[in-house]
Amino acid sequence: MAARHTWKSYLLWCANEHVSFRIPEVEAILAMYKIPHTWIEKPAENPWMLISMPSEDCAIKLMKRSVTVRSIIELWARSTTKEHLDDQLKILPTEFTFYFKKENTFKVVVDTFNKVTSQEDKIKKIESFSFLPILGTANLKNPSVTYHYYEFFGLDAGRIPENPYDYFFGRWVSNSERSAVEKYSLKTRHFIGNTSMDPKLSMIMANLAQIDDGHVVVDPFVGTGSLLVAAAHFGGYVCGTDIDYLTLHGKMKPSRAHQKKRQPDEDIKGNLKTYNLFSRYLDVFVGDASRPVWRPEFRFDSIITDPPYGIRESTEKVGSKKIAPVPEELASPHFPSKTQYGLGDMYKDLLNFAANNLKVNGRVVFWIPIIRMEYDPDLLPEHPCLETVANSEQILNLHSSRRLITMQKTMEPKEAADSAIIHDLQYTFRHKFFNTGEIKGRAREDVQAEYLTKRSKRGNGVAKLPCNE
Ligand SMILES: C[S@@+](CC[C@H](N)C(=O)[O-])C[C@H]1O[C@@H](n2cnc3c(N)ncnc32)[C@H](O)[C@@H]1O
């Protein structure tokens, strides 16, 4: 480990979205790469965090993965007043003034949070640093050193203070992986469906799952494979199962309004090919998550998934409501019909699968729908072999949200491999969703009518309609 005195403070300047995912994402990356660090400040809501690390390499490594952070700055001064910030900059140590040398071209970037600043004001702010003894010439296109000046005006857009709450000044070190995500935009993606997961959230999930080069990753509710794209981007070898043949093989109705027919290569494999990630594709196949087909001794590095919540589509598993007409030992191995798959049972199966088929220290990352008023972290699914390491909320509407849960396997199960504990919240979500808060009257009838129409159109077959969103 590097000597403590070489450590520097860094400012993580975050994107103004996915707020509750920031700290868990950064902590997952720090832990995955075993990056030595000390938190200085990590406010849960503010778009910045302060951390101390032993080297710039650590900062760059962190940025190579993060999606919630925009950029990392070597922090030279931080204050709650401009005068005090300037005072600190007037007595910078030589390790920082070193960058002021003549050979270095430079530029200064000004950024304000929660306040729009005109170009004219930005120039005035830049000029307020003219006391810095910078000897190089300005170069706005390709500077060798970029200085960043940030002003934080709080979070309340309705009450913007006259002066910022916080001032930061430092040297830019690196931007994050965020801009790389643009190429995975659903707008331009070859194969999508109505439930395709947003690429940024998919990347955040892959980071929480600590997917790294060579890992074997599975999504048991794979849909159109958005999570496999993110996992393959970070070097994972990917596979998945879905109960719906049509979704899995891109045979369902096109989701884009202008498109009449799907292309022959419009499927998960086709997506990975267009993104140059095909070498990471293992396979996808029709399978029921309630009956995992994997060999019991096989261990995955990670499981990332977005199970159906049963709002716009029913949750189903293979089976029949009828009492078996023939004894099980004589029954055909073919199960033509499907039966309701309660959310509680689905999470029970998922956790048992993770406890059985993950490597020790491997992670399972999954979404779970919540009625906000009822939320209690003690009533989330549990398993004696899995420890919850992160739990972030994405609000969907006034009364419901979904939470992204990250669990890490701590040990191999002993006798009771199916010891997941599921609380009532998971069993009652769907019923409560249709009977709580603002989903009332007409709105509720609409959602329920849509659900029932889709269900009756699908009959007992394999065609499946979009879920969740
Ligand atoms: C929310 S969608 C997944 C979306 C996916 N992450 C994507 O990006 O397209 C849930 C998927 O679970 C599938 N599913 C539902 N019940 C299942 C079961 N018992 N076993 C496996 N897959 C199931 C549905 O067909 C659907 O494609």
TrEMBL record:
<dbReference type="GO" id="GO:0000049">
    <property type="term" value="F:tRNA binding"/>
</dbReference>
<keyword id="KW-0694">RNA-binding</keyword>
<dbReference type="GO" id="GO:0043527">
    <property type="term" value="C:tRNA methyltransferase complex"/>
</dbReference>
<dbReference type="GO" id="GO:0032259">
    <property type="term" value="P:methylation"/>
</dbReference>
<comment type="subunit">
    <text>Part of the heterodimeric TRMT11-TRM112 methyltransferase complex; this complex forms an active tRNA methyltransferase, where TRMT112 acts as an activator of the catalytic subunit TRMT11.</text>
</comment>
<feature type="domain" description="tRNA (guanine(10)-N(2))-methyltransferase TRMT11 N-terminal">
    <location>
        <begin position="9"/>
        <end position="178"/>
    </location>
</feature>
<dbReference type="InterPro" id="IPR002052">
    <property type="entry name" value="DNA_methylase_N6_adenine_CS"/>
</dbReference>
<keyword id="KW-0963">Cytoplasm</keyword>
<feature type="domain" description="Ribosomal RNA large subunit methyltransferase K/L-like methyltransferase">
    <location>
        <begin position="188"/>
        <end position="317"/>
    </location>
</feature>
<dbReference type="GO" id="GO:0008033">
    <property type="term" value="P:tRNA processing"/>
</dbReference>
<dbReference type="InterPro" id="IPR016691">
    <property type="entry name" value="TRMT11"/>
</dbReference>
<dbReference type="InterPro" id="IPR000241">
    <property type="entry name" value="RlmKL-like_Mtase"/>
</dbReference>
<dbReference type="GO" id="GO:0160102">
    <property type="term" value="F:tRNA (guanine(10)-N2)-methyltransferase activity"/>
</dbReference>
<protein>
    <recommendedName>
        <fullName>tRNA (guanine(10)-N(2))-methyltransferase TRMT11</fullName>
        <ecNumber>2.1.1.214</ecNumber>
    </recommendedName>
</protein>
<comment type="function">
    <text>Catalytic subunit of the TRMT11-TRM112 methyltransferase complex, that specifically mediates the S-adenosyl-L-methionine-dependent N(2)-methylation of guanosine nucleotide at position 10 (m2G10) in tRNAs. This is one of the major tRNA (guanine-N(2))-methyltransferases.</text>
</comment>
<keyword id="KW-0808">Transferase</keyword>
<dbReference type="InterPro" id="IPR029063">
    <property type="entry name" value="SAM-dependent_MTases_sf"/>
</dbReference>
<dbReference type="InterPro" id="IPR059073">
    <property type="entry name" value="TRMT11_N"/>
</dbReference>
<comment type="similarity">
    <text>Belongs to the class I-like SAM-binding methyltransferase superfamily. TRM11 methyltransferase family.</text>
</comment>
<keyword id="KW-0489">Methyltransferase</keyword>
<keyword id="KW-0820">tRNA-binding</keyword>
<keyword id="KW-0949">S-adenosyl-L-methionine</keyword>
<dbReference type="Pfam" id="PF25904">
    <property type="entry name" value="Tmrp11_N"/>
</dbReference>
<dbReference type="GO" id="GO:0005737">
    <property type="term" value="C:cytoplasm"/>
</dbReference>
<keyword id="KW-0819">tRNA processing</keyword>
<dbReference type="Pfam" id="PF01170">
    <property type="entry name" value="UPF0020"/>
</dbReference>
